[in-house]
Design brief:
The complex is a heterodimer.
Chain A lengths: L1 H17 L4 E10 L10 E4 L4 E4 L5 E7 L3 E7 L6 E6 L4 E2 L2 E3 L26 E4 L1 H6 L9 H5 L5 E3 L7 E3 L7 E5 L2 E2 L4 E2 L4 E2 L6 E7 L13 E7 L8 E6 L3 E11 L3 E10 L1 H11 L4 E16 L4 E19 L3 E23 L2 E22 L4 E25 L2 E23 L4 E25 L2 E14 L2 E17 L2 E12 L1 E4 L10 E4 L7 E14 L2 E18 L11 H4 L8 E17 L4 E16 L8 E2 L6 E10 L4 E10 L3 E2 L4 E6 L19 E6 L6 E2 L3 E13 L4 E9 L9 E8 L6 E9 L4 E9 L1
Chain B lengths: L2 H14 L2 E4 L12 E7 L5 E8 L5 E3 L8 E6 L4 E3 L1 E3 L2 E5 L10 E8 L4 E7 L9 E3 L6 E5 L3 E13 L7 E14 L2 E9 L5 E3 H4 L4 E13 L5 E13 L1 H12 L21 E15 L2
Classes of the chains: A mainly beta, B mainly beta.
Chain lengths: 790, 292
Amino acid sequence: MKFLSAAIFLVFISLIIEAQPGRHTISGFVREDVSGESLIGVNIYVPELKTGTTTNTYGFFSLTVPSTSSVEIVFSYVGYNTQTMTIEQNKDTELNVSLKPGLVLREVTVSAEKPDKQSESVKMSIIKLPVSQARNLPALLGEKDILKVLQLMPGIQKGMEGSSGMYVRGGGPDQNLIILDDAIVYNASHLFGFFSIFNGDALKSVELTKGGFPARYGGRLSSVLDMNMKDGNKEEWHGEGGVGIISSRMTVEGPVKKNKSSVLLSGRRTYADIVAKPLLKSMHYDNTGYYFYDLNAKINYDFGRKNKLLLSGYFGKDKYYFKKILPHQREEGGFFWGNATATLRWNHLFNNKIFSNTSLVFSNYHFSINDNYQVLSENKNYHALYNSGITDFSFKHDIDILPGTKHMLKTGVITTVHEFKPYAFVELDKLHDIDIEDFKSTRGLESGVYIEDTWQPLRTLKINGGIRFSHFTARSRQYHYLEPRISTAVQIKHDFAIKASYCEMNQYIHLISNTGISLPTDLWVPVTDRVKPQHSRQVAAGFVKDHQKITLSVEGYYKYMNDVIGYKEGASFLSLDDPGSSAGINWEDNVTSGRSWSYGSEFLIQKKTGKLTGWIGYTLSWTQMQFDSLNYGRKFYARYDRRHDVSVVAIYRISERITLSGSWVYGTGNAVTMQVSEYIAPYHMYIRKGDYHDLYWLDRDGRMVNDYGEKNNIRMGAYHRLDLGIQIHKKMKHWDRTWEFSLYNAYSRRNPFYYYTEHSWSKDFTKEYYFVKQVTLFPLIPSVSWSIKF
Amino acid sequence: MCRKIILLFPVFVLIATSCEKKIKDGILPGFESKLVVTSFLSPADEISRIVVTSNRPVYGELKPYPSPGKVSCRISDGEKEINLKSTEKGYEFNRQEMQVICGKTYCIQIVNEEGLSITAKCTVPMSFKNDIIIDTFSVPEEIVTRYGTERYRILNGIVKFMDQPLNENYYHIVGKVVDYFNQYYSFDVRTEDIWIENDLFTDREKIKDGMISIPVNLTGSIGSADNYIDSSFVKIYLLDTERSYFLYHKSIFDYKDDDNPFTEPTPVFSNIEGGLGIFTSYVMDSVIFRIK
């Protein structure tokens, strides 16, 4: 406490010093030339003073420097031409800068802080992904996916084959905070996790933080994926779109009022239902289909320099449906799930040093199953409807205070009202006189207040320190915690820096899933009296070396998590065969709490410029868990514990017309639990309870059961895969078009999706055999897509 | 239509288009032969028994369960140690050889001729006066006729007993109905089990004001109108058990062996060091209620 007070005192002293006369402020916005799109994270550097700043989320910057006759300022940003300006520095100056996209648009760069040197940034454990990069890499069925590209970075693993779920530094997929224009997205998956819901054409920026979290982030333990949609071109109408094997997309953007207001509309829909129709027809499911769509929309208006209003939204849905009509009966039903978000933001510039953003946010995730069955002759019907979901209403206010070059203060508050609906079930069965209606809903209030400062006390030392106070209330139970955050960077040489960070995080919302794969039935539930918040403490350290065109970063981390959620053995949250019982299931009875340790090292070598660009990433890690009520209280490896994880990504620009790309990934297999033997487990004075369908009940005195030994006792086979792609670009008269041909899993590696046991008999039926089979989901899959830009 | 299919159908479609292959044995966990030991000790038993069997491999050719072979079985109560004699039903000892006493800890050690060995221990719960009663049989013997001539007897009641004042107690309730028939002047006895829902529980789940109440329901066929029951008794057995007894049986009932590869397996509890099975104990109280 004394240390904290002293630190705050020092910060304020330095602030006062900064406020001395003899200094002037240059402030303004940096935008993309032609489109007027604000640029995030542009590096603004004053070589003479060896100091600088970056633009915030809305493209705003403020730089206070000593008064001189003139000063040279360099504006640089990945993918854009660097611009140098000389400014008369005898008064406060408003300066709006437009950067032109660079000649080389398709270079691969990751996490580049300008002047393209990660060694000069205090940030660590951060990945900034240029959206254009996702378009250059080959993808499953040609569907470009931001999350799949992020999975190619060290420290970030995918769950299962084809899944877009992320396991970041040993954390589960529920421990990632995914934000789109300030709105939380709860289920970021289409088609059971095979594709993410994010349409890259609508995105402007993607930044993932996996450690050293600044104080402005909270609510999840393992990562924050902060994405912003494009604002829309304020100068002229443009568009882009594409047609692929299973989906098509189109984005249009343009001015509503030139230089004042713009709009962006982006949509995507799959036609998998059409493609799969012949197969389904052969299986006698004529009226069965599945599709997904998503829609991004944004409109903004500049009320002069000091005020700007932005309204954005996302709407997406997955739907499966079926209909069966027979002479005497009729059945139809299906399920769907989807997200909807809406964000209204007001940017306000108080003066050339204080910028604020106020957001009102709505976010909803909803899942529903329905089944209607009618016996036509009896005029009786059956109807069942199951709903679950979560809805958020949030208020957020953030202030950037830029008193000088040595400090970059951020402070703010966020309050969210969560409405949890773990289930709502209705069953009306006139055939069997069943009429059930059950509904469960609860509210929670989550709040956070933070303050953080990026301080550069010395030319070679940067510190980002902050504190966050988080609070959660649900069912009259309250939790609150202080979360300290600090990260430091010491520049040993101009291109070599050592970094370290420490952070504490808390999570008040849990994702309950007992299937091991991402399914829409996964429930979001709040903490309660019995199920406490999850906590984490993470320390990380490493170094960054920039050398000409190559950057090497090495980082080690240790993360301890407690009160993490695990599922009791045999737990089920949705007994679909017996909805009456599921209506009575309390999820709190089916979960247990434990601890988790995750530690490892991450290596990343990147080449960012030139004809050949790409990176090699390697992660060596361990993730273990311990629950008193699982595995007899012994430690075990998590399912997604992956000892080695390798990614090699390369993009080679042969010419302006042709680009080759490839990626190779390797990962140790998932840890799964498989039986090691079987035996008869007798029981005492028990009565058979009518499970006559179960063939393994030998007699009323015992049951044949499997012995599993340890939990997650075996490793599935290693996963490795090569993807190749070629893009052929052509500049047409009115548009640019690109043909892309790609091979997913080019050498058709049979990667394990899951294992199962199969039973067979010898030809004479005298011998019985059990063996294990592996299911592989995706063999070699070629794809072709066509896209245009106008 | 099964709603599981509604939900998992698209996944099945995807999987149906996938490839399968048999995996190499090297990836599978190796088989380790173990002794499977089962024993439920009680002070009320004249003869205490320990059953020893073996496990078997699950991959490859499925062979019959192997015999554990010749086994040496010893039990100790902390003061003396005896060898158990082998019988058709298992390994036994009687009260004269060693008495099972409440509060005492018993250790067993079993070794077979192949060198497999296990150890286990259990502590017999303290005896407690539960004052078990059967309260309020609302319909002592309601006979209804369904489906033509089939006669059904319906019994409803509540079993009540005092809870032991310990941190956590584990109970198992077993019910039986004993009918004495006088059919064509030939007497016969039939014992029928009463199924009691949630018959395995901890006191935390059920206790109220120091008492525990368990509803008991019996609905069973008593045959055609020609059968005649001379007298009937309901016997309720209350077993006050160790925690290991509770965990073992609960894990058996929660045990799932379904086809879903994405659900977590449900291992059966074991307290046998170096082996499988259960070595546990209980004390028992009972009450008999005459229906007719």
